[in-house]
Amino acid sequence: MEKNLYRSDFPQFQDKTFVYLDSAASALKPQSVIDSVNHYYHDLSVNIHRGIYDEAYEATRLYEETREMVASFINASPEEIVFTRGATSALNLVALSYGMNLTSEDEIITSELEHHSSVLPWQAVANKTKAKLVYIPLDSEGRITVEAFKSVLTKKTKIVAITYVSNVMGYISPLDEIIPLAHQFGARVVVDAAQAAPHLKIDVKRLDVDFLAFSGHKMLGPTGVGVLFGKQELLNSMEPIELGGEMNEEVGKFQSVWKDAPYKFEAGTMPIASIIGLAKAIEYLKNVNLEEIENHTKRIRNYAYQQLKKIDGIVIYNPTSDSSIIAFNIKNVHPHDAASYFAEKKVALRAGHHCAQLIIKWLQIEACLRASFYLYNTFEDADQLVQTAKAAVKFFRSVGFEG
Predict the structure, then answer these.
(1) Cα 146 to the chain's mean position, in Å?
(2) I need a surface site. Which of 190, 228, 272, 380 has the fewest CB within 10 A?
(3) pLDDT computed for residue 400 by the predictor
(4) Same domain, yes or no: 133 and 225
(5) What's the number of domains the chain is made of?
(6) Which of 287, 320, 344 is the last residue of a domain?
């Protein structure tokens, strides 16, 4: 088997034998990211945009350089990059600010593939504004198709809230066709790119997307940091949903003036260390190359899939996945019980509904196992997954589960 060139950059693997197949939940962190976070806390540990002393200047410089790096990473302008506390916060910001302009005459299109962070804020908007929530019919594989999207797109459509890559099925949404269609009807498109950012080159200008959100921790970065991209004119038109320190230009007794975007959306003390660490994560991904990462992970995923599908007693729900995810179950075995068996064998999987209950219900199952691969995984990891799956089927049959 070929040698993995990046595994040694991740201290989480040192002196451990575990197989980590849960990167869709959170990616491991390379040493360079850890060092960057430690540098902030050890050498700076001060606030930004406030002090004029050296440490404050340096922290602010690193913070704003990260904004520039993120903008370059997705082909945006720095003024269009809002730091948040996660993709969830970013998507909520759009819904609870821009979305509050909707009325009972308007419609919001979404899908059953969405992560809860993508659909629940728009449920709340629909309940408050009386706008209508409309779902794109999925095809027999559970995919979003352009034709299905056209079937629900009307002059009443004002928002399209859609995933870039499904976190359960691994399907890539046809955004190149969906976004211009939505714009023809005057709708704004809000994309959840949390699963896309670690794998795919995102170009917000080419996509012409209105809003796009992703999180740092799924792309080798720290937890507690997310990114919202918004077209500048849209961000400027929106009201902040958090009010407090540093987001205001002038404060009066009865009325105040906000700073321009993005700063009016970054109230209080931000997760400075995590944002600075995100810069190193982006630097790492750019040095490796996203295309190389995606080719590597898909090869390992397909290698594992070809073996898993031959195991009697294993059900795979996304055989045609576009990404690194395998969603599966052991027949008649609750995925939490199965995950416990995998954990005992040092194979780390996710079990549950993956914060995406709508697609789990669409599949007519209670929950599922999810294996997800990333740049540090190896073909040996895939072999260990398959061997453990075979052993798990045998074990559960031996104790009375009919697989």
Answers:
(1) 22
(2) 380
(3) 80
(4) yes
(5) 2
(6) 287
Say whether pTM exceeds 0.70. yes
Contact 228, 208 (CB under 8 A): no
Q: Are 295 and 189 part of one and the same domain?
A: no
Res 291: pLDDT: 95
- The helix (run of H) or strand (run of E) holding residue 249 is strand 248-251
The Cα 161–Cα 142 span in angstroms is 17
State how far the Cα of 187 lies from the Cα of 396, in Å rounded to an integer.
Answer: 50
Helices of type H across 77-158: 87-97, 116-129, 146-152
- pLDDT surpasses 80 at 2: no
Indicate whether 207 and 265 sit together in one domain. yes
At position 204, the amino acid (one-letter code) is V
**What's the CA gap between 17 and 277, in Å, rounded?**
27
**Which residue range is the domain that position 89 belongs to?**
32-287
**What residues are annotated to the active site?**
355
DSSP for 261-289, written as a single string: TTGGG--SS--HHHHHHHHHHHHHHHHH-
